[in-house]
Amino acid sequence: MGVSLLTDQTPASPNNVDTNAAGATLATCVRSSVPGMITHVRFYGATDAGGAGWVYKASVWKPTADDASPAAQLLAITYDPTLVNAPGAWNSIKLLQPVYAPADMPYKVAYHTSNVSGQVLYVSTSSALASPITNDVLTAQAGDTSWDNGGSPITLRNGSYKYSGITTYPNDQFSNALYFADLIFEPGWTRVRPQIVMDNYDLGGSGRTLAVDVTTDVHISPKELSFEMNSVYFAITNPTSVQGRIYNTDTQAVIADTGLLDWSSMGSNGSITGWYSLPITCGVLPPGNYTIAVWEPTGTRAGYNESAAPASSIDGHVSILNGRTGESQNAGPAWPGSGGATRLYGVDMIYEVVEDTGASTRFFSFFS
User: Fold this and answer.
1) How confident is the model at residue 164 (pLDDT cuts 50, 70, 90)?
2) DSSP letter at 85?
3) How far apart are CA 244 and CA 343, in angstroms?
4) What pLDDT score does 344 carry?
5) Does pLDDT of 345 surpass 90?
6) What CATH code is assigned to 200-365?
7) I need a labelling partner for 61 at 20 to 30 A (CA). Which of 185, 256, 290, 314 fits?
């Protein structure tokens, strides 16, 4: 179930204490020799950081410039309000939406730890990144070295950190230290297209359903629905709950339903920006046309990309046809209504291709 960079390593300093910082973001820069998905961020818990009160946030960064003059794209950030640190052991945070990682591109996987009672606690091993660390398809290059970055080399500091009360791109470095930030990587998972950039919105009453129509010529087994929200184009105030559904497009019949899910259970941490995942129980769907929909009872705007063209999945069997939206549905989810051939909403599905024998093959999703 996935590959991690670190295996049996344990920190030489299991309980570093910093009394001057408001918090710290600690990271490891990694690359994979094959494409795949970053699904989780792992970190090793400090021995004295057990119990409630400590807040941990996972993040994934794509560096775009040398760390000496840093620039980076924040690809994912996830807060798990239910996580209680396991001191002296590995902890894992599932990203709200997996991050697609092409082969041989550097990414920084990081976690942010808070200050509790005047202390920031973390683990480390000095000089552990004086030489590369490799496990399976994953490699962390040595301390301050050039990374290929798709043919445009950049110099990155590995074993990096940044002191701050909030998650911040980590580009500082000390003694080639390893801070035991790690990942779970799924080789072979892939995407159809980049994350939707919402460039417009339509107005409506209270309550919105966003959806995309898809068609498949193979059997598929849906695992999760997901949706994207941001403060500009889904203008939700005080969100409370969401609900996902899969419809038969031709008959408008409901095939599967997530049920009404409480917003606070999704780790939003007071922010609505980002991708959110909705687990769904659904049997195997035969070849046909399906509509993937997400309903939110208080939204008044639906963000979309007007020029996004329909897309095919990497397996060549599942294609997006168009997007749909429904308005004024505060009483509950309903068939999303009209669509548009060039309009796509930030709604996604992670699914598994299933052979006629019922044997599964690979997972895919529409957006990264």
Assistant:
1) very high
2) -
3) 20
4) 72
5) no
6) 2.60.120
7) 314
Estimate to the nearest angstrom the gap between the alpha carbon of 59 and the chain centroid: 9
Amino acid at 351: Y
Token pair belonging to 179? 């801070």
Question: Do 49 and 88 touch, CB atoms closer than 8 A?
Answer: no
112 pLDDT above the threshold of 50:
yes
Residue 362 pLDDT: 46
- Alpha carbon distance 47, 345 (integer Å): 44
Instruction: Give how far the C-alpha of residue 348 lies from the chain's centroid of Cα atoms, to the nearest Å.
Output: 12
CB 48 within 8 Å of CB 15: yes
3-class DSSP state of 149: coil
Residues 116-128 as b/e (b if ≥16 CB within 10 A, e otherwise) read eeeebbbbbbeeb
Report the length, in residues, of the chain: 368
Q: What is the DSSP letter of 88?
A: T
SS (H, E, C) 207-266: CEEEEEEEEECCEEEEEEEEEEECCCCCCCCCCCEEEEEEEECCCCCEEEECCCEEHHHH
- pLDDT for 116 equals 92
- pLDDT for residue 268 is more than 50: no
Rounded to two decimals, the pTM is: 0.65
pLDDT in tens, 19-60: 999 999 999 999 999 877 898 999 999 999 887 788 899 999
Please measure the distance between the N-terminal and C-terminal CA atoms of the chain and give it in whole angstroms.
Answer: 20
* Full DSSP string of 276-313: EEEE----PBPSEEEEEEEEETT--EEEEESSPPP-B-
Residue 199: predicted pLDDT: 64
Domain boundaries of the chain, sorted by first residue:
13-187, 200-365
CATH code for the domain defined by 13-187 = 2.60.120.820
What CA–CA distance (Å, rounded) separates 27 from 179? 7
